[in-house]
Amino acid sequence: MASLVAYDDSDPESEADPARSGDAAGQMSDVSGISRPEVEFASSTGVTKEGAQHTGNSPYEDPGKQRLPLARLWRSDPGSCPSQRLQWPSKEPDSTFPTSEPPGPSLWMNRAPVGHVPLAAACFKPLKPAWDAFTPSHTHSKLESTAGNASSSQRKRGEACVLPYIPKRLRQLQVLNPEATGGRDVEPPGSPAGCAPAPLCVAPTVSEFIQPYLNSQYRETTVPKKVLFHLRGHRGPVNSIQWCPVFSKSHMLLSASMDKTFKVWNAVDSGHCLQTYSVHSEAVRAARWSPCGRRILSGGFDFALHLTDLETGTQVFSGHSDFRVTTLKFHPKDHNVFLCGGFSSEIKAWDMRTGKITGTAPVVSWAIAWVVKGYKATIQQTLDILFLQEGSEFLSSTDASTRDSADRTIIAWDFRTAAKISNQIFHERYTCPSLALHPREPVFLAQTNGNYLALFSSVWPYRMSRRRRYEGHKVEGYAVGCECSPCGDLLVTGSADGRVLMFSFRTASRACTLQGHTQACLGTTYHPVLPSVLGTCSWGGDIKIWH
């Protein structure tokens, strides 16, 4: 008889302490690891703290008022067992979001997939009460069948959706600090998705900080030490930043982000966001100023290309690419031509020509664009593009890096004939996420995943320097950018640990290290006019202006 009875080892006093030291959601965990809520009822109903209701007709009380053990070993009627220690946990426990703050849609997709739970919400979501503990046996089977049908239909709808990949560092930040991406800062003025942005109001006068340096021929760059502005407003990683190439308008800074927007900032005078553009339906991977400084070319993961006019807020050109766009570069001479690269084995050259349509309606300005040339190689992705020799040649960095295919890491192309000039440039087993041209010397820099900057000649045969190597930072797979100062004496690069490192171009020694960001620093760019003014952006979504 003793083998048929399981002794009641649940002590109400011993289980009260773990319940008080539980998490914020009010859950309590026993030794078996099964999470269950602590349910208390009024004393008049005769319900114990374990959540089982004992009435006068309870099958667990004998006529002699002698209480039997709470659990038995037989499995004929598992729904009538009030103890959850002897029940197997549900294979698919129902979960719900906190009622205080509903989940927002994913920043990388148009809409949140059905059944998708953000990690930060999943770590703090409370479980629904375990109704099995106090549900009658005749309704238990109905609830299980209804929940099973709902979960199966929900699972089928969730499988049809594609969940976006969230990097490990971003997931850890969301768990440790859920408000890091919660928007504690006020959102800068912008246009809602799908609507045309308002025209950008730019003052006709030159900034008083830039005016004294416009007529100077040589500007020596010094090491920045302090933060001038800390620009917040993006709700996703900032992929790249660029100052306006027109010197009189170089107070404006362009930033492209994974939150499907690109912004224009006044990063010299006030540090305010001038305009937000939401013309893409997915992450914006690349955005470039036009050489005239009045338009912005953008491309992203939605296969779309947009040329936005800042003065009118309209789309001068909108095209569709065959692949996800990761890099864009205007031709240095012909400003109607640009190169587009991304998740494809081919780089395409687009040509834009403007015209006018006349008739009964008012004159409408329009632009057409078509692919005029393709540059194809046996690769899978183009990481960056760099023009050489005033646009007659250009370099492309790819993702090809194996033991016997290092000849495709950096490829030199003839722009006019689409012929390969050289593919024996970089022979080490590292990819190069970014390229930068020196402003005065015939050399260029390549950021490598070997955690160093390599120096190459910008003329054929593009040999790599074995004497100078700039190292000390970390790349770790990020698209960490690098750049030279306008005078050419300093080099700056970001780092995967958030630091900003500056090197001397001549000696390859480290000139300065700035503790810039809490997450990976992706973009670094010197101001074209102001000496020792530096802009940096990070994977955390913030931008800093140093001086």
From TrEMBL:
Lineage: Eukaryota, Metazoa, Chordata, Craniata, Vertebrata
Entry-linked Gene3D superfamilies: YVTN repeat-like/Quinoprotein amine dehydrogenase
A family per Pfam: WD40
Species: Rattus norvegicus
Domain of life where this protein originates: Eukaryota
CDD domains: WD40
SUPFAM superfamilies: WD40 repeat-like
WD repeat start-end pairs: 231-266, 277-318
The name this protein goes by in its record: WD repeat domain 25
Keyword terms of this UniProt record: WD repeat
PROSITE patterns: WD_REPEATS_2 (PS50082), WD_REPEATS_REGION (PS50294)
Ranges for region Disordered: 1-108
